[in-house]
Design a protein that fits this description.
Layout lengths: L6 H8 L5 E6 L2 E6 H17 L7 E5 L3 H13 L3 E4 L9 H15 L3 E4 L1 H7 L11 E4 L19 E6 L9 E5 H12 L12 E3 L6 H13 L4 E3 L7
Parallel strand pairs: 1-10, 3-4, 3-5, 4-7, 5-6, 9-10
Antiparallel strand pairs: 1-2, 7-8
Helix pairs in contact: 2-3, 6-7
């Protein structure tokens, strides 16, 4: 078993290696080193702190794009916040039902902020009055403050993030994972009882990042093992 690390510690370690993420969208492929991703995350962290969020506040992430999702997740963690991964609507055909379910999550979790796309920010403004704790609805593209090294880094026993069930069979339920839980989970996936990850391996995934295996196994697993990863949009399954 490897030494347990918080998410920011694993990101800092990975930033010293050459491996990174390749993000595919349509016919466009973008490579980001882990150092690039960490720098972008530091800008997000500074932006969230400048917006008034404080250590331990829960930040809901509603972003389908893998690169934007990860920089927001890492940025919230670097700032000592608690990110929560929520699925983004794929269509507008049943938007009212989506907002009803998501507003319930925001109320139950006492989320202080939602980070989403510029287009969805206007949609979430419709449920803000239903969520007493929700004070900020932020567009990811606007989180571009100068990068700084954060001073509110989490401990192993702090919450790394909260994941929610889909809500397809009942009201969505949240599960809080500590950084220690996350590190142990990734270690089990990468270790001899799991994938037996080696220096020759490359991860490829089209699972959405609000999915536990998509996030923990295929996005964070390569991060903790400093291996390259290719992340495709979920639509690549078809």
């Amino acid at each position: 078993m490897t030494h347990p690390r918080t998410l920011p510690e694993a990101l800092a370690d990975a930033a010293r290696a050459d491996a990174g993420y390749r993000f595919l969208s349509g016919h466009v492929e973008t490579f980001r080193s882990r150092a690039d991703v960490r720098l972008a995350a530091c800008r997000v962290a500074r932006s969230l702190v400048d917006a008034g969020l404080q250590r331990g506040d829960l930040v809901a992430i509603v972003i389908a794009d893998a690169e934007s999702f990860l920089t927001t997740l890492f940025g919230a963690s670097l700032a000592g916040l608690v990110p929560a991964s929520l699925y983004a609507p794929t269509t507008t055909s049943d938007l009212d039902r989506y907002l009803e379910l998501t507003a319930g999550i925001l109320r139950a979790s006492a989320a202080k902020a939602v980070v989403t796309t510029a287009a969805l920010a206007a949609v979430f403004a419709r449920v803000r009055a239903q969520c007493p704790a929700l004070s900020l609805i932020l567009a990811h593209d606007a989180l571009d403050a100068p990068a700084i090294e954060p001073d509110a880094r989490p401990t192993l026993d702090d919450i790394a993030f909260v994941q929610y069930t889909s809500g397809s069979t009942s009201a969505p339920k949240g599960v809080a994972l500590s950084h220690r839980n996350l590190s142990a989970n990734v270690d089990a996936i990468n270790g001899p009882a799991g994938l037996m990850t080696t220096a020759a391996d490359l991860a490829v995934s089209w699972l959405p990042l609000n999915h536990d295996m998509g996030l923990v196994g295929m996005a964070l697993g390569p991060l903790y093992s400093a291996r390259p990863a290719v992340l495709l949009p979920a639509s690549a399954r078809s």
